[in-house]
Design a protein that fits this description.
Largest sheet: 6 strands, mixed
Distance between the termini: 29 Å
Structural class: alpha/beta
Radius of gyration: 20 Å
CATH class: Alpha Beta
CATH topology: Rossmann fold
Strand order of the largest sheet: 5-6-7-3-8-9
Number of domains: 1
CATH architecture: 3-Layer(aba) Sandwich
Helix content: 25-40%
Number of strands: 9
């Protein structure tokens, strides 16, 4: 069970105009702007649920995921995941979650993928039997047999993303955070990733939170959508409740963005 209640998070960002004179002035009189990334965010996600967490760039999606994964500490509010406070019990918490950032890698660039997996095994202290079982299952489901001995830098984007997903699941997490997992992938790779995520949820009852701008991913994987904009939760409902008549999901979401002026 994931519960966020009245979570707020803000950042203080230094600002200055262009030019050498302004740079010198900023050394003594720095100006700051406060950005409210999250304002009074509250929601609950049940075990085994697959939820689409959507919104425009800068809406607060990544800040939410970072708080849920224990990377960030909120300014106020509470967050509990299976009874744990993510940022206070990080070591125990990270054993139960998997995180995939589409634009960042957890694979070591110049070594074969299997070496990265072995290192993750040691980091998470995965028992040998569990590691071998999970590796065999992930290798078969994601078709990784020919990729394990290849350095990450020599993989295509689609191949690397399949390896990234496997890396995030080696320790058998109960919760999976996916941040743009199919960004830049071709149609075949997207379908393969979507199919795997659905099977993972069906086989292991894995809870999935998906943030993406690809509405086809949302339609294929989730039944519930949480819409965030300007740091606030604007809508929480099912696809059927949100979708408008015969409009496509992209048209529906674009209409919501205009309606909420985000």
């Amino acid at each position: 069970m994931i519960t966020m209640e009245h979570v707020c998070k803000s950042y203080r960002i230094a600002k200055r105009n262009a030019g050498f004179r302004e740079a010198c002035r900023a050394l003594f009189h720095r100006e700051y702007e406060v950005i409210h990334a999250l304002e009074d965010v509250s929601f609950t996600i049940s075990d085994g649920e697959m939820v689409g967490y959507i919104g425009p760039n800068g809406a607060g999606k990544s800040s939410t995921i970072k708080i849920l994964s224990g990377i960030l500490t909120p300014d106020s509010g509470s967050c509990l995941i299976d009874g744990r406070v993510p940022w206070k019990d990080r070591i125990r918490h990270v054993r139960e979650i998997g995180v995939v950032f589409g634009q960042r890698s957890q694979l070591w660039w110049d070594v074969p993928v299997i070496d990265s997996f072995e290192l993750l095994k040691d980091i998470y202290t995965i028992p040998d039997r569990v590691y071998r079982s999970n590796l065999e299952e992930l290798t078969e489901l994601l078709n990784l047999e020919e990729l394990l001995r290849t350095p990450a830098r020599q993989l295509s984007l689609g191949q690397r993303m399949r390896c990234e997903i496997a890396a995030s699941l080696l320790h058998g997490p109960k919760i999976l955070f996916l941040d743009e997992p199919t960004i830049g992938l071709d149609a075949v790779s997207k379908l393969a990733v979507r199919d795997f995520i659905l099977r993972q949820n069906a086989l292991h009852h894995t809870t999935v939170i998906l943030t993406t701008h690809d509405m086809q991913d949302i339609e294929a994987l989730t039944k519930r959508i949480i819409l965030i904009g300007k740091g606030r939760i604007l809508m929480d409902g099912t696809l059927e409740e949100i979708k408008r008549g015969g409009a496509s999901m992209d048209e529906t979401v674009a209409g919501l963005y205009r309606a909420y002026e985000i």
